Amino acid sequence: MPLIRTKKDLDQRLKNISNSLTLGLVPTMGALHKGHIELIKRAVSENGRVVVSIFVNPTQFNNKEDLKKYPRDLSKDLEIIKAVDSEIMVFAPSVEEIYQKNVQTKKYNFAGLDKVMEGEFRDDHFNGVGTIVEQLFNLVKPDNAYFGEKDFQQLRIIKKLVEIQKIPVNIVPCPIVREEHGLAMSSRNERLSEKMRLKAGFIYKTLQTAKEKFGTKSALKVKEWVVNQFIKEEDFKMEYFEIADIETLSPLKRKEKNKKYRAFIAVYAEDVRLIDNIAFN
Ligand code: PAF
Fold first, then answer.
1. Can you give the pLDDT at residue 210?
2. What distance in angstroms lies between residue 258's CA and the mean position of ligand 1's atoms?
3. Was domain 187-276 assigned CATH 3.30.1300.10?
């Protein structure tokens, strides 16, 4: 399976792909789990050739400790990808290869999508995501690019990025994959104890009940209820819970017919930051 380390090598290999084949890109930061595997399988089933990128992007981490602790295991990742399809091209560049000496974000105008929820608590995070994803799109020039709905805000912002930078790529959203007890799959889950990994199913259960309540109660009442559930659970520290319009991501004040809403949550468990979301209608 081709492991590509440089932009030059990537360019050479992409030139050898027949124009009649569509190209799929699955951008990742490695530490691959079942959620990533679903993205990769889908990309393989929908494209003639697939590139999986593995790059722990420093500019999207607002917390140095989080970047340091981010799980990295390239040889395990390569085994996982090979088991899906040995023809997949893996692009795993170094930080220098991507940023040279300038490890900086570009500044984008995401029309406020980056100012709420994750953006409120992770300064410059989405500029960092935009910087790397734009560079990957420019290098790989994929027809289709695959992103998980676990990072729904990221997905929405990447659609905005493609619109404002006029990048000709089809963004394919893929459903959240969950562990047996409901915790959304994430590379960060590896840092939880086994006990907490089971217990953290509580986050999704709370979102499911909040969704039921949303049928008859106001957004404010649902929010109050969720906040109270987490106050009672000492093992978790909730950072935010928001019900937002799926297009603008602005927090819901009053329910409107014909609008679609989603609830978003960020919670700390054993010092690990976990995020999740659920469609409300
Ligand atoms: O979702 C991720 O893993 C990252 O944010 C991404 C899209 C690969 C950019 O670094």
1. 98
2. 31
3. yes
Chain segment 199-236, per-residue pLDDT in tens: 999 999 999 999 999 999 999 999 999 999 999 999 99
* CA proximity to 46, closest of 170, 133, 168, 158: 170
Q: Binding site for beta-alanine, residues?
A: 60
**CA separation for the pair 107, 98 (Å, rounded):** 17
Buried b (16+ CB within 10 A) or exposed e, 227-266: eebbeebeebebbbbbbbeeeebebbeeeeeeeebbbbbb
Reported pTM: 0.96
How many angstroms does the Cα of residue 132 sit away from the middle of ligand 1? Answer: 8
For 3-174, which CATH class?
Answer: alpha beta
Name the residue ranges covered by the structural domains of the chain.
3-174, 187-276
**Residue 9: beta bridge partners?**
none
